[in-house]
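Page 47, continued from p. 46.
Same chain as before, 290 aa.
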Amino acid sequence: MLVTLKELLDEAKIQKKAVGAFNGTTLESIRAIIQAAEELNCPVILQHAQSHDDMIDLEEIGPIMLYYAKRAKVPVALHLDHGSTFERCIQALRIGFTSVMYDASAKSFEENAAETKEIVKAAHAVGASVEAELGHIFTSEVVHGEGGDADSTDDYEDLDDIYTDPEVAKKFVEETGVDCLAVAFGTTHGVYLTEPKLDLPRVARIRETANVPLVMHGGSGVSDADYKIAIENGICKVNYYTYMNTAGGKASKEYWEDDEKPLFYDSMSLEATEAMKKDIMRAMKVFQGL
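Result:
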């Protein structure tokens, strides 16, 4: 059942839950995401990150994602993750995506706000939702197809300069009309190489000032306890990809290392799908408090 991101996150905000957002880079991962959501009867966000275009282009994977979202037994928002241009966001909306993220977080506040406002006008005109980002989210060295150069909290003298400022977030939401906001509070894209230093009270302060559902990027690797606090403090959407992808990769490796199993790609892909589904379900249970 295809729905908008705003529908899912407004309800999650009321219930103090979070909806998992998972990148579907292959048919196997798309099936794993939808199967996990249906088995748990959970809403889900199926998304394509623009940074994954090197694996498969939006024009190719988008209609497949739309097909699975429409026929799902649970509410599914179809989302463009980290769209970097107005043209790419419009492309996603024309395919049938019900939400887009416009990521201009590396630009000045003025540029980010002005450009995001134009995306909001276009998306809202066709009933779609918009996510934006304020602040800097770290990038691990171990990441495939996401983020930029590796960095960490150790690379910055004053984290207040890169973490999302609550008052700035309030101003940004008022100026742009975005439906949700990705905030920086210490999470990392990719595999965590060290224990993350999360500023969880900051999330609550942003929730109070901005008054929109908040988004956690770099959700893989966060402890269950920290997830619980972050969600209680206002996180309503959690982007989760790297560890799900790793689960599929490990299952594939184990399959090929078992000499008793036939050398059939389709058999291996089924095991990889099942492994990803189990990891997604584990994450969903945490996000939804199941």
